[in-house]
Hints:
Elements: H1 7-11, H2 19-37, H3 44-51, H4 55-62, H5 65-87, H6 94-111, H7 113-126, H8 130-158, H9 166-186, H10 193-207
Helix pairs in contact: 2-3, 2-4, 2-5, 3-4, 5-6, 5-8, 6-10, 7-8, 7-9, 8-9, 9-10
Amino acid sequence: MLGVVNGDQQRNPARRLPREEVRRRLLAEAARVFAERGYADARIEDIAAGAGFTKGAVYSNFGGKQELFGAILGDGAASELAAVREEIRDLDDLPAMIARVASLVTRHIVQDSGDGHLGLEFAARAARDEQTRQVLTPMRRAQREGAARSIADVAERTGVRPAVDLDQAALILHCLTNGLVNEHIADPEAVDAEAVERALTTVLTCLLPLPPSDDPPRS
């Protein structure tokens, strides 16, 4: 059962609650409902009721179902990137950084396949629905921009020159991770954790190549 909204909440669902708390509760309940039912079968009314509000709280804070779902995916991707950056914050050896990043991203892909299913469902819907695409496009751009900043940070810290420009490197990495999610969902036996980690390590090593031993890193 998703929850019961009392009469006072029905009349004034977000009374006395800060806006950020309302958003937090809605996002938490929406993440649960979307994971349980999928995007298509999740209803705004049920999400709002489960969080203790009326559906008006969803519209006033997110605009609609697409925007709410996009916020969940965007927040999840941002949290994952922040966690990866924190994990390599104290490393200064490039191969060690690459190994750590590949391991962390692999774990997310293999263990959090529910997010992958939802992302695929939303992307497929965006191909046929303009309103959904308008939510997906800026979210994907923000993810690529975050990846570009992370690559730039690693390159600066290690003195390594990326093999391609930052935007292209971010696009390659973004497409690779999305593709690995898709392939792992479709064929988890062949595209297992070892295969995923090996692919990530190979591409990261190509994007951030160490200079020849007789050519010291640039300062």
